[in-house]
Amino acid sequence: MPDQNDAQTRTWATGDYRSIGARFLLAAELLCETAQLRAGEAHLDVATGTGNVALAGARRSARVTAIDLEPELLAHAARRAEAEGLKVDFRQGDAQALPVPDHSYDLVTSTFGVMFARDQERAAAELVRVTRPGGRIALACWTPSGYMGRMLALNTAHVPPASRAKPESRWGTMRGLRELFGAGAAIEAATRDLWWRFPSPDEHVRAWCATYGPTMVALGSLDEAGRRALVADLTALVHELNADGDTLLMPLEYLEIVIRP
After folding, report:
1. CB atoms within 10 A of CB 66
2. In the chain, what are the domain boundaries?
3. In the chain, how long is the greatest CA-to-CA distance?
4. What count of other Cβ atoms lies within 10 Å of the Cβ of residue 14?
5. Which pTM value belongs to this model?
6. Which of 103, 105, 116, 244 has the highest local Cβ count within 10 Å?
7. CB 55 within 8 A of CB 120
8. Per-residue confidence at 11, pLDDT binned at 50, 70, 90?
9. pLDDT tens per residue across span 43-96
């Protein structure tokens, strides 16, 4: 699916995901703890982005492979690994057609990554395919009710997708996980919050619109009136969820998941 892959690569190459991914470090560390990653295990991180989970696995002495579509993000992740003296095998590849053999990994992870695959069923099947018997899949996925799920829904409301794509936050629901992984999978999930901090709600909105690829792509496809409307809706959402007064203290709700296929 080269056209879809090209579009995905362009989306995540837009803006500066490095500054955003840095704020998700805690989710990566917690996921490795919840999955009880062991030293020496074969660990695959899918849609690794800036490498948060891959580096967390390497810090725990796992044998880590990390895959992403976007080469610049992979290069940034590799620089981080080198700076920490960590060994990770970074590879460019598609979550919907992982370039690794069947049943190769004890632990397969993805933090806010694989949920953005266009073909969700195919991506889920790939996660299962590469997991060893008795292994597990550990995911962190945005919920529909949290800021990220609602923000992504705003993008879709203002710029409807060309196809009848299911929302990315489907991965952040038990119903969606059952649909994707089947009734026979053992699924454990718990809701967690990351906390987003900015000097003010409006400063967050300005920074978000200048750094987060999916929002920037949506804004770029709208006329001036459409851009103002999307920014106004995003601003209202941020103010609604802000738990502080003058500064921004906003929960980013996500589902932390461990699946035994």
Report:
1. 28
2. 2-144+164-195+252-260
3. 54
4. 16
5. 0.94
6. 105
7. no
8. confident
9. 999 999 999 999 999 999 999 999 999 999 999 999 999 999 999 999 999 999
